[in-house]
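Weekly sync, protein design subgroup
Attendees: M.S., D.O., the rotation student, P.L. (late)

Item 1: inverse folding check
M.S. brought a backbone from last month's batch and wanted to see whether the design step gives back something sensible before we order anything. D.O. pointed out we never logged the input encoding, so this time it goes straight into the notes. Structure tokens as presented (198 positions):
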């Protein structure tokens, strides 16, 4: 009894309430959505996600039915285990934990609790997955398929017209730029046309 009284006296000195609030977690979580979450500087998509996670997984859960003062780190761990057993993915469990921790941060700020029970529980991990890689045989098969596809595409293109008098590789000597009239042919210059100097 003396120990309890001593603890109660120390809580106000540490800035904590003399007694944890008895409000149900469900009720406080609902008010958190309408007030603290709504006025926060989070993106609209994040607010919508947090509100949905709170209504779907916290409000109405066994953890939500407890009073704030009765939620311990052990209760949080049981909550996380229940989420995993229900088939929730690791990223979803981590997000729900993040939302629950934010709710209790606000409860501590509001003076309803001395400390946040979520902070004593390690944040759920998300296992990193490696990208699938091809075996040498699969890579060879993929390259072969790509080569066949390339040749098939090339054979399906239109055959160039070879009926022209001039081959694409042979320059057209009769070609004249548009708008330019052909002039008289140039006379070859020989030494007979060079005037002699006297």
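Designed sequence read out in the meeting:
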């Amino acid at each position: 009894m003396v120990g309890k009284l001593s603890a109660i006296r120390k809580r106000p000195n540490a800035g904590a309430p003399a007694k944890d609030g008895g409000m149900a977690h469900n009720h406080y979580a609902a008010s958190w959505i309408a007030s603290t979450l709504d006025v926060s500087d989070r993106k609209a998509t994040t607010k919508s996600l947090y509100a949905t996670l709170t209504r779907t997984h916290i409000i109405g859960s066994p953890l939500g039915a407890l009073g704030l003062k009765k939620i311990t780190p052990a209760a949080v761990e049981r909550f996380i285990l229940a989420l995993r057993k229900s088939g929730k993915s690791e990223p979803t469990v981590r997000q729900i934990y993040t939302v629950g921790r934010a709710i209790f941060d606000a409860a501590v700020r509001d003076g309803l609790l001395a400390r946040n029970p979520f902070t004593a529980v390690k944040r759920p991990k998300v296992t990193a997955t490696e990208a699938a890689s091809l075996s040498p045989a699969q890579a060879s098969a993929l390259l072969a398929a790509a080569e066949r596809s390339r040749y098939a595409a090339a054979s399906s293109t239109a055959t160039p017209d070879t009926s022209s008098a001039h081959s694409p590789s042979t320059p057209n000597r009769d070609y004249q730029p548009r708008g330019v009239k052909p002039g008289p042919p140039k006379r070859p210059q020989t030494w007979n046309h060079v005037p002699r100097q006297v």
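Discussion: The longest helix spans residues 90-109. Confidence is low (pLDDT under 50) at residues 1-12, 14-18.
Action: P.L. to compare against the previous round before Friday.
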